[in-house]
């Protein structure tokens, strides 16, 4: 389903300048941008991702990962194909590096039908994820509008590599986001992701200081590339200074995939060290992921140190919180919490594929 795109302008040489992300592709007639999704058809920019999905799942929100936004809730997760980055280590490369015609996909997923599926599966929220939803912003916004009209919340899982004007339009419709801060050096971004660090930092600071969107940050640690203690310390210092000490930071483990097969899996000890560094930098809520580490996945009260939400992998095991505050000392916990009590969960994912509603 081709759908007219926003955020572009014609150029003097007849190509179209896409202004959605900082890559600023100049797209000739019949060609596609770096993401494969945005295409020049007859002198108009269209998006081939609208209404098309490569599959759905119902996930615990902790898998996004979000630890302080409606913990224990579930989200209908889905994506399309393509990406605006070129990460050599992509963990979803079969989706993000594919053209839609290379994928088993279905193009009848109107915004109404997506929300129907979420409601039918009992998911109170929808997550735009798997590949970067920035490149299918028009579709994500329309689904978000329909979701909000029917009382569902929205989650945007992204690299944060987006231009300023488009950024404002997209996040106006999102309730929460997890932004993947892939490293803290321009060298890594340029060489390993084929993008740049500065626009991502701009997005993160803007989200934290100028919007009401709940934001959490993830840093995937890759042995020998971005896991040096000094880099972790500088990253944590930046988050504390430019986003604030209450912004949750997740350190997750790498596994060899796609074009980066010469690096080992991230040792659990590396994540534990990174968490300690970030906490020493003043961040109050730091987590580990993709490893079995109950302490590293548990929320602690920043005042008294008591356990507030105990997790194991993506499951909520026990809760000591009342009305968004620590049950032991009454300290308010940063985040967005439902009015009712947070209940323990199994933390399981339910794969749906491309179901009928």
Count of helical regions = 8
Number-wise, the strands total: 20
Helix content: 10-25%
Largest beta sheet: what is the strand line-up? 14-13-12-11-10-9-8-7-20
Q: Which strand-content bin applies to the residues?
A: 15-25%
What is the alpha-carbon Rg in Å?
20 Å
> Unreliable segments (pLDDT under 50, ≥5 consecutive)?
none
* SSE arrangement, N to C: EEEEEEEEHHEHEHEHHEHEHEEEEEEE
- Biggest β-sheet description: 9 strands, mixed
Termini separation: 19 Å
| Structural category | alpha/beta
> How confident overall, as mean pLDDT?
93
- Tell me, briefly, the overall form: globular
Blueprint (SSEs and pairs):
Elements lengths: L2 E2 L3 E3 L5 E3 L7 E2 L10 E4 L2 E4 L8 E5 L13 E5 L14 H4 L14 H10 L4 E4 L8 H13 L3 E6 L5 H8 L4 E5 L5 H8 L3 H14 L3 E8 L7 H14 L6 E5 L14 H13 L5 E4 L9 E2 L6 E6 L2 E5 L1 E2 L2 E2 L23 E4 L4
Parallel strand pairs: 8-9, 9-10, 10-11, 11-12, 12-13, 13-14
Antiparallel strand pairs: 1-6, 2-3, 3-4, 5-6, 7-8, 7-20, 15-16, 16-17, 18-19
Structural features, described:
- The protein has 357 residues and is α/β, with parallel strands linked by helices.
- The chain has eight helices and 20 strands.
- The longest helix has 14 residues, at 197-210.
- The chain is globular.
- The mean pLDDT is 93.
In short:
By secondary structure, the chain is of the alpha/beta class. The chain has helices at residues 93-96, 111-120, 137-149, 164-171, 186-193, 197-210, 229-242, 268-280, and strands at 3-4, 8-10, 16-18, 26-27, 38-41, 44-47, 56-60, 74-78, 125-128, 153-158, 176-180, 214-221, 249-253, 286-289, 299-300, 307-312, 315-319, 321-322, 325-326, 350-353. The mean pLDDT is 93.
């Amino acid at each position: 389903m081709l759908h007219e795109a926003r955020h572009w302008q014609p150029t003097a040489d007849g190509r179209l300048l896409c202004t959605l992300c900082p890559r600023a592709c100049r797209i000739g007639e019949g060609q596609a941008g770096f993401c494969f999704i945005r295409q020049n058809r007859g002198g108009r920019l269209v998006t081939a991702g609208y209404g098309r999905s490569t599959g759905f799942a119902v996930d615990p929100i902790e898998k996004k990962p979000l630890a302080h936004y409606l913990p224990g809730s579930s989200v209908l997760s889905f994506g399309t194909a393509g990406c605006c980055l070129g990460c050599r280590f992509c963990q979803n490369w079969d989706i993000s590096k594919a053209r839609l015609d290379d994928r088993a996909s279905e193009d009848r997923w109107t915004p109404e039908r997506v929300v129907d599926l979420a409601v039918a599966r009992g998911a109170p929220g929808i997550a735009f994820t798997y590949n970067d939803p920035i490149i299918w912003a028009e579709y994500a916004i329309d689904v978000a509008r329909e979701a909000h009209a029917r009382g569902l919340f929205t989650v945007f899982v992204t690299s944060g590599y987006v231009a300023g004007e488009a950024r404002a339009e997209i996040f106006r419709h999102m309730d929460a986001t997890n932004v993947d801060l892939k490293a803290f050096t321009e060298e890594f971004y340029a060489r390993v992701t084929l993008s740049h660090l500065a626009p991502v930092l701009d997005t993160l600071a803007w989200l934290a200081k100028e919007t009401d969107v709940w934001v959490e940050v993830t840093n995937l640690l890759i042995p020998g590339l971005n896991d040096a203690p000094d880099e972790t310390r500088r990253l944590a210092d930046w988050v504390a200074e430019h986003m604030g000490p209450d912004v949750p930071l997740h350190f997750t483990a790498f596994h060899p995939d796609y074009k980066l097969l010469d690096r080992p899996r991230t040792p659990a000890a590396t994540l534990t060290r990174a968490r300690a560094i970030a906490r020493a930098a003043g961040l109050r809520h730091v987590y580990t992921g993709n490893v079995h580490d109950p302490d590293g996945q548990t929320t602690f009260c920043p005042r008294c140190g008591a356990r507030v939400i105990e997790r194991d992998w993506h499951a909520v095991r026990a809760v000591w919180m009342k009305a968004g505050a620590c049950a032991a000392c009454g300290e308010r916990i940063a985040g967005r919490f439902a009015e009712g009590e947070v209940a323990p969960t199994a933390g399981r994912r339910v794969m749906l594929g491309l179901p009928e509603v």
